[in-house]
Amino acid sequence: MSKLSKDFLWGGAIAANQAEGAYLEDGKGLSLMDIATAGKKGVSRHFTKGVQEDVYYPNHEGIDFYHHYKEDLSLFQEMGFRCFRTSIAWTRIFPNGDEETPNEAGLAYYDDLFQDMLDKGMEPVVTISHYEMPLHLVQKYEGWANRKLIDFYLRFCEVIFKRYKGKVKYWMTFNEINSVILMPEIAGVLDRTKDDFQTRSYQAAHHQFVASAKAVAMGHQIDPENKIGCMVLTLVKYPLTAKPEDVMLAEQNMRKGTFAFTDIQVRGHYPAYVKKHVERLGIHVQIEPGDLEAMQQGCVDYIGFSYYSSSAATTDPNVEKTGGNMVSGVKNPYIPTSEWGWQIDALGLRYILNRFYERYEIPLFIVENGLGAYDQINEDGYIEDDYRIAYLREHIKEMKNAILEDGVDIIGYTPWGCIDLVSAGTGEMSKRYGFIYVDRDDEGKGTLERKKKKSFDWYRQVIASDGEIL
């Protein structure tokens, strides 16, 4: 094979909580991200206080995708998208999370959204839980450390699997599920100030594994055509030197940060090294009868993952550190660094694709990849984001090499933030990823006007040529 298949799913990705806005419209309840404030050092949340007066919450309006989705989908159609990844806001379907009956207005909104995608030739790719859950479940049940959340989540899954049967085929259960350990405040919704925080984090992870597996089994039963994957944040670590200790540390970091989560969800059990790690921490995870059987019966169909950058690992404490998606790492002197300190490493994408595929031999889906940057509008009102084009071009080249040279089975490619949106990590709008500029600043000012960047026409040409013209 010398070219990518015509069935390859080119597209783009967003998340409901970072784009939709309309935070209390049509019966929607308050979510975790509705109390996230903006800041250069990251978002802050006040779980017990809820929304406060005179505080700016960027997600309340986002980019108002809720009201602009037809316009935005038309722009994606113009680029030639064959798929579009988004998420369903749990709080639109179950405003508090523990209700018996779903909110019809929320269900109807996604009916219209998915139908419009299909009408425009786009396959919906849906994340069920993308760093968003009802705030009520945090305040009353203290998040995923509480086993009751499994049942609330599965009720949500059952409703949407049945409602969107025939419209949605590609699902992912939890966005970047390894964040439940890496950033438990976001993914597990836990209070870091509590003494048992670490134990609760691992308990929350177990609950998510059980919930995910049961959702996979349920989704297959409701519609055998469903393809249900996991989604992980990839932490690519290279040894800083050929020192054996550095090589071993890099491998341990990759196992602990990424492979543990794919091993569990693809193979359906806890590997020995995970059990030993938890044992060393002195943590007891409560596993109820039937949990391990459920995990075995709910193995995922594919691996969805995010990839932005890589970093190094070394036993030497006197080295320079750099940033990354959720976690920092050791700076690698051989690769460049973005404005946010993320090290740009296109070959790392081919590397992790091969590591995943040789380990599991199931399809992979690159559902996040992109460059966050400060975009400047020139005198002609145009954004020449050549830096973004260069980043994506090199990553697509390596993706193609993985497919055509290495034989890796990849479903599709959906660059992150195909339209500018609110950053999950900092709450900023100025950290832009999109092919489409949205007139909104870090203080919530702007007209929300959409404007094509230079990368818009470039990506349109990439898709039209099936990746031949880069």
TrEMBL record:
SUPFAM superfamilies in UniProt: (Trans)glycosidases
A Gene Ontology term for the protein's cellular component: cytosol
GO terms (BP aspect): carbohydrate catabolic process
Keyword Cell membrane set for record: no
Enzyme class at the top of the EC tree: hydrolase
Keywords: Glycosidase, Hydrolase
GO molecular function: 6-phospho-beta-glucosidase activity
PROSITE patterns: GLYCOSYL_HYDROL_F1_1, GLYCOSYL_HYDROL_F1_2
Catalytic residues (positions): 368 (nucleophile)
InterPro entries in the cross-refs: GH, GH_1_N_CS, Glyco_hydro_1, Glyco_hydro_1_AS
Pfam (any one): Glyco_hydro_1
Enzyme Commission number(s) of this protein: 3.2.1.86
Domain of life: Bacteria
Family: Belongs to the glycosyl hydrolase 1 family.
Protein name, UniProt field: 6-phospho-beta-glucosidase
The species this protein was found in: [Eubacterium] hominis
